[in-house]
Amino acid sequence: MTPRQNAMFSWRIVLAGRRYWVGLDTGVAETAVCLIDEFGEILFEGKRETHAGQIKDILRPFGVEAVQRITIEAGVGTHMVRELQAQGFPVYVAEVRRASKFLAIRRQKTDSNDARGLAELGRVGRTIGAEVFVKPLDCQNLRSLLNVRKNLIQQRMKIDALVQSIVRLHGGKLKTSSGVGRLASGIEDQLEILRADGLDVDADVRPLISIAENLRSHIAGMDKRLRAAALAHPVCSNLMTVPGVGPITALSFYSAIGDPSRFQRTRDVGPYFGLTPTIHQSGVLARVGRISRFGSKLTRTHLVSAATVLLCSTKTESALQAWGLTLRKKVGLSKARVAVARKLAVVMLHMWKSGSSFDPART
Prior knowledge:
Elements: H1 3-15, E1 20-26, E2 30-37, E3 42-49, H2 52-59, E4 67-73, H3 78-86, E5 91-94, H4 96-103, H5 111-124, H6 137-169, H7 182-196, H8 202-232, H9 234-239, H10 247-257, H11 269-272, E6 277-282, E7 285-291, H12 297-312, H13 319-331, H14 333-354
Parallel strand pairs: 1-4, 4-5
Antiparallel strand pairs: 1-2, 2-3, 6-7
């Protein structure tokens, strides 16, 4: 080794066993790494490939047992988090929105500054950033499928709206439906009428119809597989006994929670999904605002949809439905369904934790 390498090696030997905190600013290819000690002094700064083995190689000279916390933002690098946790490292996954406010203290936003800021967050800001739960693999796979389904539905709706606008532009009328083959059968009569008027839009419309019908077929196949998966799962099949809760909502709720034991009180699930109002207080003034919308937007949407079905379509009577209908008369459907969605989340979590079935007499 060169004299410089010898000096660096000796320096690391001296630091071995000294407590330190790690910040990782992960990217797809590279991860910025920063190690700081209990006084905030930088022990190491650099970049490595986004791989757990490379991170462990950096930590080894400083003493693996001396690691107090490895802080990383939620998002890219989940696979690395799982590997580090499996090796026994204390990994803390920080919520992006709260971590970003802490990182904004520094004027220059760079990967190295973010890595140092995350290390500082782990050292002095244990209560500043809400920890993100790293879901089990089966829950993560379900989330991926549900997100794919959501995006496919959005694309289908956009194409439906585009076809509808083309037909309406030329004076036609077209009703869209989510059923397989409905759009293709409904468009034929309209194209015939337009051709009779001397308008030929086949070249513009037919490719869109083909894409929309393929999306419908794929979504229908996904729904069939997801329904079978929900019925075969003991937790999800039990959650589906709740009026208004279908296979998509049950799977969405199950995959978003992952581990029900992390909620000491069942009512904490309402704020977890952003279904409780925000409060702004300053001195003698206090204002209650809209719901916080924290947590999973996808599952929150599914819960509100289930609440809407419970209030508007479900024939099975229950105390929860009666409570929601009474509230609807007072505050309207928009607010009532959000309140019922929060109640649904609490009821579903209680059923999951206790293993009990739905009780129509309880709210």
